[in-house]
Every structure is written in C-alpha cells, then in structure tokens.
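User: Hey, my collaborator sent me this sequence without any context and asked if I could get a structure. I don't really work with proteins. Can you help?
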Amino acid sequence: MRTATAAGPGRIGWALADSWTMTRRELAHWARQPVQPAVALVFPVMLLLMFNYLVGGGRGVDGDNTAFLVPGMLALTMTFGLEGTMLAVTQDLAKGVIDRFRSMPMASGAVLVGRSAADMLQSVAALAVMTGVGHALGWRWHHGPEAAVAAFGLLLLLRFAMLWIGIHLAMVAGRPEMVQAVQILVWPVGFLSNVFASPESMPGRLGAVVEWNPMSATATAVRDLFGNPGGTGESWAAEHAGLLAVLWPLALIAVFFPLAVGRFARLSR
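Assistant: No problem. I've predicted the 3D structure and written it out in structure-token form, which is a compact way to encode the shape of the chain:
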C-alpha cells in the first residue's frame, strides 16, 4: 500500500509506474483492436500516393514535387489521426472508466500521461511508415543525420501540441458521437497550409494566412532541414519558419495542456 504523500523520489516513481501502466493499457487495446491503429497508419500513405500520382505537382513549387510533398505530408500526418485519441478519451468518459481510475490510489495525471504516451508511440510509427513510403517514391534528405533528427523532433513537437488540443476537445465533447463533429475542425488547419502548394501561388490574403499556419511553419522548417524545396517565400513567417515551428507548438501546449489537466481535475467534482 502506498504511503508516500510528500513530493520526492518515491512519489515520482509511483507516478511514473502508474503512467506506464496506463500506457500499457492503451497498447493492449491496439493488440485487441488493431484495425483503428492500422487505419491511422494507412490513411496518410493513401493521401501521399493520391496527391503525388493523381493530383500532380504542387503549385508554385520549383523542383521535384515529391521532394516538396513528402515533408509536408509528414507534418500533415502529425495533425491528422487525433480522432483515435479523442474517441478513446470520450469512450472512457461515457463508460465511467476515468471515474473508476480516479477513485483508485494512483497518480491523478497518469490517465492523461498514459494516453499521450501511447499516442506519441503511434506517431513515431506513423513517421517511420511515411518515411519508408517516401523513400520508396524517391524522396531523400540531403543535410545529414543531425538535421534529420531535428526535423523529426519538430514533427513530434507539433504532434504533442495537437495531442493536447485533442484531449481537451474530447473532454469538452464528452460523448463519442460528438468526436466527428469536433474532429472536423482539424481539417481546415491541415489543408489551409503549404503542404500541397506554395503560399506564393495563392491570393495575397490567403497566402498570408497559410504562411502563419502552425503546420505550415513546421512543414517549411522540416523541408529546410531535409534540404528539400520549400517555395520562395520572403515574408517574415517564411524566413523564420524554424523559430515558428518551435514557438507555435510551445504556445499551443502552454494553452491546452493546463486546460486539459484542469478539465480532467473537475470531472468528478
């Protein structure tokens, strides 16, 4: 039985153990219900193949369209797929699972930490799959392993920010049937970006909005790190995409992480 109440190594150890237990619970769900994580891995691959072969070259792009498209699709993959996390949270809420967890002698934030850890593991798998498919299509990075690691780090940072937005919106929605209505809000963020076309090819005001999209900042930054074409933008946002690729996710985390944690703390009050 746990007796540690003061902050210290013992309490931190219990919190980590509880969080790992909740992470293993989510991984066990994948093993029992593999269709949903499989779809989450296959869907962005289908988008990549469709836009690369069926839709054609991106507007305003100088050079190989595949080299432009793949980094953008990696960023888009980090934005999509949140419905799985949102659905899992709302199902636990609807079934009273979270209330039962909160009544147990476990760290109060372990449920959210376990959920986020499982999501990040799936995101790593999604990046690996998309990178492999991109490589098969002829895409390459050109700036060495350090730059590639930095690029993948920025992609996962974006995912971590989007994850906490999804967790918060799931607790606001409260019911699984509301997830689709809330998740559709992600689509404008994904497509109102420079994933498929350069902002310079768009009308002035629309192009400016696209350049300041957090996902556009990440896509531009990872293209630079990979040494892939990224358009010829001369705006402040385009020239400082690397900085914005860090600041935007940190700002989103600073807003939605405490909102999600606070909402979770009020669930049983």
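In plain terms: The two ends are 25 Å apart (CA to CA). You can pass these tokens on to your collaborator as they are.
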